[in-house]
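Lecture 7 notes: from sequence to structure.
We start with the chain below.
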Amino acid sequence: MTAYGAVARIFKPPINIFPKKAANGRFHLALKYTSAMMEKSTYMTHRWRAPIMSTAATNKAIVDQFFEALNAGDIAAVVNTYADDGYVQTMGGTLISGHTGKAQIATFAGGIFEVFPGGLKFTVHDMVAEGNKVAVEAESEGEHVSGQTYNNEYHFLFEFRNGKLIKLKEYMDTELVTDVLCGGQRPPFGT
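Predicted structure tokens for the same chain:
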């Protein structure tokens, strides 16, 4: 037998791969090798670790939880998503447009549930994440206290730092906001 043949027989590919429970209760990945030069099989184990979520995947999970809390009317959970210096920026030129810091978000969110007593339900249609940003296409539906059905479409851009929301930019149909949420009122021209 040549030296190459002996090496090839010793390092045959694994014939079985299976989880093996260790004495400490953790699972290891066991690879069963058979050696032509040995009478018994040998095992190599590799400690299995739970996969680590990427930053983008973690942030997407936080966004999912954010919308679940919003749909449940859990204002405390919504506010807790934000970093201390976090804010929401509602785009456009409506009465509700502008910059709202974390301290005012509870009041702002509470106001939404006052004008939508049955709640405002958000449906996420698409979500894309890269690094510390998550982009979301969504729509909302609810019955306004005026009796009008409010069904708006949104683009949200979430930006995170260390698992906390630092900026949420909200784009939507501002004419619908003016007609339903603001009762047709507009801010004074030029403001």
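Points to note: The chain has two domains: 3-47, 55-181. Helices lie at 3-10, 55-72, 75-80, 102-115, 174-181.
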